[in-house]
Every structure is written in structure tokens, then in C-alpha cells.
Amino acid sequence: MLEINKKVDGTALTIMLTGRLDTTTAPELEEVINSSISGVESLKFDVSNMEYISSAGLRILLSAQKVMNKQGEMKVLHPSDDVKEIFEVTGFSDILSIED
Amino acid sequence: MKELYIEAKDENLNQVLAFVDEQLEAYDCPMKTQMQVDIAVEEIFVNIAHYAYEPSKGSATIRAEVTEDPLSVSLTFVDNGTPYDPLAKEDPDITLTAEDRQIGGLGIFMVKKSMDDISYEYKDGQNILTIKKNL
Questions:
Q1: Among B29, B44, B28, B59, which Cα is nearest to B134's?
Q2: Is the pLDDT of residue B121 over 90?
């Protein structure tokens, strides 16, 4: 189960994720990103309530990062310690900009 | 030992996770351990679902056993698909930039990093992958 909430402020988009970002739910997030990323210059993922991420979720964040490298900036906000460890083990802490 | 025999497809992932979590329930294991086990189960099951029987479909058997002293869970994934040793795959280069990063192989890499033991054998036409995690 993943709950996705969006907040748009001009060219800034914040996506709040609650629950599990896995094989089952990643396509839903991918769809939300694809339909709203055009023209966005600042993309933030608030993951404070994301309790789980597998490689399917990492793939979505990576492709969003690639898009934002061309058109602005992207940040991942407030991961839990366990999620942060996954970012570290997979080297994602070096390619994502993560804020506590 | 408990066993689940199930069609290997993404839609069954939650059922597989529920089966595994049910085995762990009585042991009050830390959230982090639970998450690491779930991730390992997801990565392995989804790999079977996507690749083992490609382009066709097939099933997987998941065996779960909790042993004590030290308390650990052992999970075995069996499929009758194409012989494939995920441990033989080279680890992804996790130092590359976003542009150059490949997502392939990342799942099994996460499994290797988070489990205490992992082994593979191909026997009697079956891929048998076993992971073990101390609880």
C-alpha cells in the first residue's frame, strides 16, 4: 500500500509518500511523476512516512533524478534511518540529494 | 517448516510477503530486520516472476523455517525455470553517476548485503536459492 500526495507551487512539486514503495506500488508513483514532471524545476519527495523501499522504488527515484538533472533539482526529504541505510548500501546516497 | 506454492507473478507478491511475515510474527523481530527480510523476499520472488519462465509463466515454492540458537529464519525459493545463479552475477557499480547507473542487479545486491547467508544450487531441474537472516 502506498499513498501518494502532491503539492504544486508554481514550478515546485512536492510528492509525499506514505507506506511501501515496492514492485506493486512503484507503477502508481511512476504514473504520477510522468504526468506531472513536465515544467517542474524543483522536485521534492517527502519520504518521512515511507516505511519501505525495494529496487523497484529505487528505479523510479533514479529515473526522476535523471529527468531533474536536466531541468532543475530534486531532493529526498526526511528518510527514516532504515530507509537511509538502504540508500547508503546501494550507493543512492551519492546520487540523490537527501536531507534529514 | 512451512511451505507456500504459488504462481510466480507480481500480483502475488503481497501474498508471499504475508506468508513470510506470518512465520516471523511470533518472534517479535525488529522492524529493520523485518524490512530487510521483506525486501529480500520481494527481490527474489519478483526475479522469478519476471525471468525464470520467460516468455511463459510458472510457479515458485517458498519454504520458511525458523530455527533457534541463534534465532534465525531460513527461506528457500524453488522454481523449475531456466537455470540461473543470481550469485554469479557481478555486483553493480554503485559509484557511478545517476546517468550511468544501471538498475539491473541492484535487487540481488541488496539481498546479499542484508542477509547473513545466501546460497544457490541447481538440482533436479530446479533453481534453489536459500537465504538466512539472524533475527
A1: B29
A2: yes
Q: Which of A24, A59, A91 is opposite residue B95, by nearest beta carbon? A: A91
What type of residue is B107? G
Provide the number of structural domains found in chain B. Answer: 1
Q: What is the pLDDT of residues B27-68, one digit of tens each?
A: 988 999 999 999 999 999 999 999 999 999 999 999 999 999
Amino acid at B135: L
Domains recognised in chain A with CATH numbers: 2-99 (3.30.750.24)
CB distance A11 to A73 below 8 Å: no
Beta-carbon separation of A89 and B110 below 8 A: yes
Lowest mean pLDDT among B18-22, B67-71, B109-113: B67-71
Q: Return d(Cα B26, Cα A67) in angstroms, integer.
A: 44
Residue B76, CA distances (Å) to A12, A75, B9, B57, B66 in order: 46, 38, 17, 20, 12
Identify the CATH number of the domain in which residue B85 sits.
3.30.565.10
Task: State whether B43 and A54 contact (CB < 8 Å).
Answer: yes
Where are any strands of DSSP class E within B42-107?
Answer: 59-67, 72-79
Place of cell 516472476: B49
Q: For the residues A29-37, what does the mean pLDDT come to?
A: 97
- Cβ distance of A66 and B32 shorter than 8 Å: no
